[in-house]
Amino acid sequence: MKKEDPRLRAAGKKTPKASKNEKFVKPADDDLKQYWKTGNMLYPVPAVMVSCKGKEEGDADNIVTVAWAGTICSDPAMVSISVRPDRYSHDLIEKSGEFVINLVTRSLTNACDWCGVRSGRDFDKFAETGLHKYKSEYMDTPAIAESPVNIYCKVVKIERLGSHDMFLAEVVGVTVSKEFLDEHDKFHLASTGLIAYVHGEYFALGARVGIFGYSVKNRSKKLEQKKAAAKKPTAAKKPTAKKKPKKVVVNKNATRKAAGKKSSRNNSGASSFAGGNWD
Fold first, then answer.
1. Fewer CB near the last or first residue (10 Å), C or N of the chain?
2. Cβ-Cβ contacts under 8 Å for 274 (sequence gap 6 or more)
3. Are the C-beta atoms of residues 64 and 119 closer than 8 Å to each other?
4. What digits encode the pLDDT tens for the residues 89-147?
5. pTM (2 decimals)?
6. What dihedral angle (degrees, nearest 10) is formed by the CA atoms of 198, 165, 50, 108?
7. CB atoms closer than 10 angstroms to residue 164
8. Mean pLDDT of the region 172-198
């Protein structure tokens, strides 16, 4: 039995019946929606720590927390991060032309948040958080050793968009933590405990609900099975042999003895073989 949608119940309406080809209950009019002013509601997004090189020789390297980060191209591999122009890290990245995106796990969430609310103008963030620098062969900018994935990026363009400047960058290398490699050198990213950022809150990723292409794969498999079953020739039924009637063996001696006697139970003269039993 289909449960009634509580949102429709609150609106004083009944859940509409779904047609045979419909999987979801079609929402009622605009009673279920509220209009908001224009804004960014694209969530969840990754919360990452971006490390950048100090501006001058001897200046401390910095870490800035970024939520507006994403993949923009696969070949060549490119990413983008959006940073406000007044942020301390903005000038560091613009001058050096490089940065490292460090993925954040549950154990790094506190440091990630702290780096997002404190300025590199006032603190040496590596020293304050206790995080360690990892020097790679890709660039001078250090990665965060505790992060399971470090993505090394070279800036190719800066887009001045408004509240944020977008740094478009090419990925020149990646390093991953060996502790998440199995005996076949397969990297298990889902086992690292990554987090996501949703409207001011951090969340740990939950259970897997599917894999890429599984919806089509399952249907294709069922369709192939149906086609295979339709093509398979059905075995011809063998003709059923007619059963021969069983011979009833009659005791001739008993028949002769009973011939001259009248049955006291069958005065009509009918055979006493009634119901298949001898009386």
1. N
2. none
3. no
4. 999 999 999 999 999 999 999 999 999 999 999 999 999 999 999 999 999 999 999 99
5. 0.71
6. -20
7. 17
8. 97
First to last CA, the chain: 61
> What confidence score (pLDDT) does residue 278 get?
33
Closest CA to 62 of 19, 94, 40, 105: 94
Q: Is the dihedral of CA 84, 88, 93, 94 positive or negative?
A: positive
Alpha carbon distance 85, 123 (integer Å): 19
- The label of the residue with tokens 């209009």 reads 35
Tokens of residue 274, six digits? 């009634």
* Geometric angle at alpha carbon 208, from 206 and 210, rounded to 5°: 145
Per-residue confidence at 252, pLDDT binned at 50, 70, 90?
A: low
pLDDT tens-place string over residues 209-231: 999 988 887 676 777 777 777 77
| Residue 43 pLDDT > 70 | yes
Residues in CB range of 76: below 8 A, 6 or more apart = 170, 171
Neighbour order of strands in the sheet with 165-176: 62-66, 48-52, 98-103, 149-160, 165-176, 77-83, 69-74
| Among 147, 149, 134, CA closest to 61 | 134
